[in-house]
Structure formats: structure tokens, C-alpha cells
Amino acid sequence: MDVLGRGLPVAIPTETVYGLAADATNPAAIARIYETKGRPRFNPLIAHVADLAMAERHARFDPLSRRLAEAFWPGPLTLVLPGRPDSPIHSLARAGLDTIGLRVPTGFAHRLIAAFDRPLAAPSANTSGRISPTTAAHVTADLGDRIELILDGGPAGVGLESTILKVVDGTVHLLRPGGLNISEIEALTGSPVIRPKGAGATIEAPGMLASHYAPEAGVRLNATEVRPGEALIRFGGRALPGEAKASIVLDLSPSGDLREAAANLFGFMQQADATGAGSIAFSSIPATGLGEAINDRLERAAAPRN
């Protein structure tokens, strides 16, 4: 609390990934998040709040967004909503947009925000564009010399960032797939969630940059064989030709469980990258359920880098 009160960012555990948290109402604190991460300032931050009541002090809820919040908060869901003019969440956290992304986390982060009694801006606690951290050790290895405090809450349970939704004219639009399964949202609303139509979308939420979540190594998707010296991350217990000559072989879920695969994704990417391999080969992963979010992260990790 003391570090946050001084306007400094703190790495905190959440159920999704570790976040780099700072007072969302303090422009100097928000600037330090961007500086620490090397994050482009046109890329908005999610404001984490303690509950729906706190969220309503900062944004206007339409009836459908309220239903979503009541059903899935606290949890891995972010809602992009019209900001209230009198909200003290600083425009720097919104990247100048009229909207604000809000989420209610579970566990320690939830208790911390309630005690701090102010929203916390908390993007993933890593250098911008790199692999998201799911343990305190990941944060230490990346940002340990740039921040004053890292709180260790053990491995993140979900392992993927939140699903980001925006309601437009009574229809739910997906801005980023994540730790909340889209099928659960559609079951609640009784209507399909509208997916993005492709590249070139306006950046109105985190995780929409084409290149993101990238390791140092190159990334090769839907691999059917392993090249000598490559790192292999496979799925479903299926061996690939050539894996005997891989630098490391990791299986996201030998049983084919997508929830387990999501929880392991970033940690396994960190392990594979640490081998020093020039590239990481990924076998194909079903695009159903949480597989949609996993494939989204992999496609961005494999995208051309600036």
C-alpha cells in the first residue's frame, strides 16, 4: 500500500497473469507503468476495481453489460464501457479514449483494490510485447531491476489475460479472447458474440496489437515436424517427427485439456525461450473454447515484429 501510495508500480498476482499495478487516478503513476514496460501510450490500460459498485462510479452500464458483470465478476472478464465525465481515472490510462476497460479480479488483487479504495491500472507485468508472466519469477527475470516491489502469490490459475468485450447497440463484440470462454458468454446472452473482422481495427483495448506476447525466439505455428535445435511445444500428447533433436519438448496438456493448456501457455513459452533456441515450434491446437484465446496469443507471438 505504501508503494502504491507513492505513485510507484507494484507487480501483483491475479488469477489471469501477474499485473504491473499502479493508482489509475494518478497520472505520474500511470506514466511510470508505460515507462517501465516500454508500452506505447496509444495502447489503453485496464482499470481493475473492487466490485460493480466501484465500477459504476467510473463508467456507464447498459443493461447487457450489467448482466455480464453480474454473471462473470469477479473473474477474467473486462468490459469496455463509456467513461463517466467525473471519473477520476486519468485519461492517460484510457489512451485518450472516451471509453474505459474495467475488470474485477479475484483473490489477492481483489482484496488489495478494496483496501486501497481506488482503481488500479494493471497491465501484464512484463516488457511490452513480450511473454506475459504467470509467476513472480517471470516478473523478476524481466522487470526485477525496474520496480521496487514484486508480490509472490504463486502461479496464476488461469494463465491467460482476461476476455475483453464491448456491447454495441445491444450486441456483444469480442475485442480480445481470453480466460473466459466465449461459449459461456453466448449461453448467458442467447446470442452469438461478434468476432473482429481482421487486421486494422482501432486499438480500443489491450492485446489488440498485431505483434504481442512474443518470445526472443521466432515462433512457428501448426508445425508437423521439428527442426534440429528447435524448441517444441505440443498439445494432446501427440509426438512430432524430429522431436528427438529438439532443444526441449513440452506438452501444454498431454490429455488435451484446453484449460490446462491455457494455464501452461506462457510459462512453457518462457521455458522454451530460456533454452536459447532460435525458434519455437507449436503443434496445432484446436480453436474451440479456450483454444480460441490460445491461438490468438500464438498468432500475435508469431506476427512480424517492429
What's the CATH first level of the largest domain?
Answer: Alpha Beta
Total domain count? 2
Shape assignment: globular
Strand content: 15-25%
CATH homolog superfamily of the largest domain: DHBP synthase
Q: What is the tally of helical segments?
A: 9
Label the CATH architecture of the largest domain. Alpha-Beta Complex
Helix proportion: 25-40%
Mean pLDDT: 94
Strand order within the widest sheet? 1-2-6-3-5-4-7-8
* Low-pLDDT residue spans: none
Structural class call reads alpha/beta
* Strands, total number: 12
- Rg over alpha carbons: 19 Å
Q: Give a quick account of the main beta sheet: strands, pairing sense, barrel closure.
A: 8 strands, mixed
Organism: Mycoplana dimorpha
GO biological process, one term: tRNA processing
Function: Required for the formation of a threonylcarbamoyl group on adenosine at position 37 (t(6)A37) in tRNAs that read codons beginning with adenine.
Catalytic activity: L-threonine + hydrogencarbonate + ATP = L-threonylcarbamoyladenylate + diphosphate + H2O
